[in-house]
Amino acid sequence: MPWYGFFLLPFAFIFRLITEVRNFLYDHELLKSHKSPIKTLVVGNLSVGGTGKTPMVEFLIHSLKGKIHLASLSRGYGRKTQGFLMANSNSSPKEIGDEPLQIFQKFKSNVPVFVGEDRVEALKKMAKLNSTIQGVILDDAFQHRKLKPDFSIILTSFSKPFFRDFLLPAGRLRESRKGARRAHVIIVTKCPSGLSLKEKERYGDQIRKYSSSSAEIFFSGIGYGAPYLVWGNKSEFIPKVVVVSGLADDSLFLEFCKNTFEVVDSVSFPDHYEYRREDATTLVGLVKKHQDAKVVLLTTEKDAEKLKSLAKQGFLEEIPIFALPIEVKFEPSEQEMLLSIIREKFIEK
Predict the structure, then answer these.
(1) What is the CATH number of domain 5-222+330-347?
(2) What is the spatial distance between Cα 45 and Cα 66, in angstroms, rounded to a whole number?
(3) pTM for the whole thing?
């Protein structure tokens, strides 16, 4: 809780009352949850952002797409449109949101990507539009109680676990900690490498105070792929970089960049940030400060298309832009166990 959190506790109490009444109504079927015509796997969290949902969705799609015909559905946070839309080669972040576009560009036509605020109605439309879809992975729909998913995963970051957090606005929780009991699997994300069994047991004990007794707990870290060119005419990556990121928590991203490349400058923006012309001017100024070093911009995959859009409009001049892919990493035994549970309870169910 921040230092001023004490003054926000009365508002957090009101928020808790509202969310608990809502959950009570759904739990006792006074408000109706609907099953989807297609199998659904929800990836969500109890907190606001920063747990790594999109890399986890990509990991699951990559791991499962050969066993079931998958599609992806999300609200499309940050988009300027409304309603039900399907991603295509002309889609932009403003049209469908930065994360759905990232997923679409990674998997193309192999995994249809949709956005829609009302997930239940969106799933009905998806079933009519494409009868070959056998399963849908939903990004950030754990609090969408109108949908009754077939399988639910919640994520909590190692550095900011939900069991140490508080309800909005005093903390970052969207609902009380006991919301974890609805999850079939809980994954602690962004774990440091070499996490000890003792530390895992300690986290597991804290999680089980709030989760279902049948819920399985796993631990994952993050890794990074090779930077790839998004904009410009550089044939090879130059490791002297200005790092640009718009993440809920970019600390691990920045730490990796500083340990791996020569970071001459960095700029951090809020999550889902919509880059403007003034931001391009700032970035050009930072690069020109280090012109002799032949600097490139290095950013996340989520931010890459937004910066590319500025570049197409001529606001970033001819500065090369590279994206650094983020990947989810499990210990092999944990990965196999997780995928085995998903196959049994989601795919083969």
Answers:
(1) 3.40.50.300
(2) 26
(3) 0.93
